[in-house]
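To close the chapter, one final illustration. This time we ask the reader to focus less on the individual chains and more on the assembly as a whole: which components sit near each other, and how the overall shape emerges from the parts.
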Amino acid sequence: MTTAPRTLYQKIWDAHVVDQRDDGTCLIYIDRHIVHEVTSPQAFESLRAAGRPVRRPDLTLAVPDHNLPTTARRDANGNRVPIADPQSAQQLDMLEKNAPSFGIRYIGDADPEQGIVHVVGPEQGFSLPGATIVCGDSHTACNGGLGALAFGIGTSEVEHVLATQTLLLKQSKTFEVRVEGTLGAGVTPKDVILHVIGVIGTAGGTGYVIEYTGNVFREMSVEGRLTVSNMSIEGGARAGLVAPDETTFAYVKGRPYAPKGADWDKAVAWWKSLATDEGATYDKSVFIRAEDIQPTVTWGTSPEDTSGIGGVVPAPEDFADASKRDAVKHSLDYMGLTPGTKLTDVEVQNVFIGSCTNSRIEDIRAAAEVLKGRHKADNVKWAIVVPGSGLVKAQAEAEGLDRIIIDAGLEWREPGCSACLAMNPDKVPAGERCASTSNRNFTGRQGPGARTHLMSPAMAAAAAVTGKLTDVRDLAPMTEPA
Amino acid sequence: MQAINHVAGKAIPFGRKNVDTDVIIPAHWLKTITRTGLGKGAFESIKLEDGNVFTDERWAGAPILIAGDNFGCGSSREHAAWALLDMGVTCVIAPSFSDIFSGNAFKNGILTVALPQEAIDRLMEVAQDETIDIDLDTQSVTTPFQDRFTFEIDPFRKHCLLNGLDEVGLTMAQGETISTYEGKARETLSFLASPVLAA
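The assembled structure is written out below.
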């Protein structure tokens, strides 16, 4: 083991090397594996066919989230409401059967702890700082907000982890994204990460693991850090990291699966040792001034297509790269946007507040703060708020946020992935626009032909109120933080 | 995994940049519980565009796809690799690939070849009328016009692809090494390594 200064990423990596080959490929131990219904059926099927057991069912958690409807799951008599789509029902049914048959703990569709995998992991204390965490879902990067090395894997890798609790990996390069300064009023963690992706591009982090450094992340809540790290993959990086600190420890302590007693003290001591050493170097770095970040939205079909809300729709000719010009032309055509249009003149018919990026309690509070005493615009036909888990839902209801949301004319739903990727019945109609707090504005992501504009929960709530993309700061004076 | 060494034939001259896995296979196709039959859903939204290369008879059943920078970005869905295989594609050539996609492709015996943009431009031109030839052993791409481009590939991946090796089986053979790590971790990282869940 090297004694040279190391980064946070290198320290977590070094602690998990099971074996190293001559070519540098390492067998890396996986501490936590979360399984959902979409990317696991083929993995379980292969294990069954080969007669292979799950090596560490005690480090594996199964939660359904992608296909579940966000409407009531039990009728008045407590019976399961049938799922209309037979394929969705089949995938959910397979997870419900596969988990117990391989000895894996399963959180069911109507359990209060059920939710989006990346919300459930941290909330349950299953995801921990310094841990290696995988799931067959690219937004596993979310858990990096705790200072965990967390990344998405394909189904073959899901099978590999189930069978061996390891993965064959090559060490990534390191990429420091430093944001320093003071964020303006109305600028949230979502705006920070959208701005970062706009700067580095969707391929900027390919081959790298990002470490988010600087006072902006140090001063951010854990939920904000989860939002930021969640979208690391949109910048091409398989994982993102924020060094664990006192804020992290306070968040993790006392959660159901968090270490307890002497184990807790031992854990904290180790977590404190993980911060990047003085003198350690990153393979590349980008520095961003917090003051340059505005409430940000996307206008195109790639998460790098971002602009401050005060901007206009760009023209293909504004881009130097020929293939980007071509992509922008396709994007604008798909989005039905004309170059030069002010973003605040773009009308939306749908609003989606939810997804693993923005469905935690702070997100619901931010949306409710904007919605309080207001009502959605008439041209907004469909507006739903989908909490990230049953526990977030219960918390929001205890705070009366559901009433504010419902009184504003929005729907308050059951937890799940929902309209982020429209695998369940929550879809945006073709040709219509959606102000969405999710993570991807890809062609067809929220339904075939759907046009997605990514933004923060406060900005999505503002769009619901005015019926068009809106600078939340123009809606009402922001209250000064206490 | 099927062993792969040589891929030769028509190449679909797609060339678009930042193609995400939602475009390769949209989410409503992910409800399958098998690995087959996804070819029909591949590039669904692109197939609606006039003059697209995926519904053009000239490239029907072509084993090679030529794409732009950052191919396969976004979602980790392995269905993207399965969809390509189902449409008959066993080799993708692009300037760069997303990390997750290239891993998924590899695990399904799809060869991903990274070449500089100039080479891609040339191959896009050749692919209009002629075939392209990829040889993994010599790590080269050639055309009937005597073009020859060489590419880099991870030696371990090359070895697995050439021999069609099952990675899960290979790692399971290291069961004792894994147990040794687990024993050590129970001491030093007890808070991570101890059993936490019961079914």
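Chain B has two domains: 6-163, 165-194. Strands of chain B lie at 6-9, 11-13, 64-66, 91-94, 111-114, 132-135, 140-142, 148-150. With these observations in hand, you are ready for the problems at the end of the chapter.
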